[in-house]
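Apologies for my clumsy wording, but can you show me some protein sequence, whichever is easiest, together with the matching C-alpha cells, please?
=====
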Amino acid sequence: MAKLDHRGRKVKILATLGPASRSPEMIAKLLRAGADAFRVNMSHGDQATHAETIANIRAAEKEFGRPIGLLCDLQGPKLRVGTFKDGKAVIRHSGHFTFDRNPEPGDDTRVCLPHPEIFEVLKKGQRLLIDDGKLKLRVIRADKDEIFCSAEVGGVISDRKGVNVPDAVVPIPALTEKDRRDLDFAVAQGADWIALSFVQRPEDVAEARRLMGGNGSLLAKIEKPAALEHLAAIIEMSDGIMVARGDLGVELNPEEVPPLQKRIVAETRRSGKPVVVATQMLESMIEAPTPTRAEVSDVANAVYDGADAVMLSAETASGAWPEEAVTIMDRIAKQVESDPGYAARVHFTDVMPDATTADALAHASARIAETVKVSGIIVFTGSGSTARRVARERPGVPMLVLTPSPRIARKLALLWGAHAVHTKDIGSFEEMIAKGKRMALRHGFGVAGSKLIALAGVPFGTPGSTNLLHVVTLTGHELD
C-alpha cells in the first residue's frame, strides 16, 4: 500500500478534477503532491464521467490508506442572453441596447433575455453585466417586456453569454432542475461535501439541506453581493463556506473583494466551520509551469488569514500543469506557516470559546500547547465537533483526529490542521491513551519523549460530550 505521511502544514488543498486530472495516475500524483480533497464540478461533463472520477478517488483512498474528501459542486442557475442572427453582435460604446422577451434572434440593437424574473426586479439606474463583466450596461427604462439600457462599456456580445445582475436580488431558486438531479447523484455517490452555488438568502440553504436529507455536508458559496446581507444566517445554516471570488469579482468593484474575503473568512472562522478560498488562485498555471508573484502572494494571504482550505479550479481540472500547481500551492502554504510571524497574523481574528465544557477544553488545549512543548493534539471524536472546536483556536501544533466514522474522517479533509484517521471505536480511558500514543507514532506526530494533548468525551461514544483533557508522553515502545 502506498502511504501518505502527515502533510506538515495545517491549511488544506482542494483540487478540482477534470479532463487533465481525473485519471487514476494523475489523482495519485496530485495526492502525493499535496492534495487533501477533490472537487468535482457538476457544471461540466456528464454524470457517467463524474461517477468514473469518483470511483477513481475512492480507489486512490484505498491505495493510499487515507480518507480523501470529495466535494460535488452544483452549477446553480445561469442567466444567459439568447442568440443572434450572425452568432454575435456589437454593442456600441455609449450606445443604446434593449433586452426583451421576443425569442427572435438578436442584432446590434436588441436580444432576447429568456429570464422573466429579471424583468420583474430591474429598475432605472441598475446594471446588467455581460460575459463576466466585459460589457456593462445601465438601465434607462424597464418594464415587464423590455429593458432599455445605455452601454457604459460596449463590445462584442455573442450567443448565450452570461448575465450578472449585481444591484438586485433575482427571485430565482438556487437549485435548478439540473442541480436537483446532480444533488441526488452526489448523495447517491456518497459525496462528503455538496457546494451550493448562487446562494442569495438563507432559504436557499434550507432548501438544499432538505433535499440532502442529512447526507453529506453543505458548503454555501458566497458569490452574490445579496448573500453578504445575510452572511451570519447563511453561515449558521451551512456546514462550511466558500469564498467564490469569480462571480463576486464580477458583480463588485475589484477593490471591494479583498476586504470582503477577509470578512467572510473571519466570520466563518468564528463559527468554527471550514472556510475555503477559491477561484483564480494560480490562474496563470493553466498554461504556465510557474505562477506570477501576485498569485503567490494571493495564496499566502489566504493562508495568513487562517482559511481552512485553498482551492485550485481550472489549474488542475484542465490546465497543462496540474501536478505542479498542487506542488507550488503546498510549498507556499508550508513557507507561510513556517514564518515566525504566522502565528500572530493567523490570530488577528479574535475567536472566543462558547460557554461550554467542550469549548473551554479546546481553548485550553491551544493555550497548553503554547506553554508546554507538545508535538500535537490528539482528538477522539464521533461527530467531528471536537475537532472543529480545536481547529477554531488555530493551535500552534497539528491535530491528530481519531474517529470510528469514515464519513467524518473524509469530511475533516477540509478542516484546518486536522489529520484524520479512521480507526475502531474505543471503550475505556486506558484503551484511548494506548491507541492515541500508537497512532501518534505511526502517523509522525512525535517520537520517544514527545508530549501530546489528548481530548475526548467520557462516556465514550456519546456525541458532544468532550469533558477530558490529558497530557501524555510517548515512550517509543507503543508500536512494539
In short: The chain has three domains: 12-77+173-338, 88-164, 357-473. The chain has a mean pLDDT of 94.
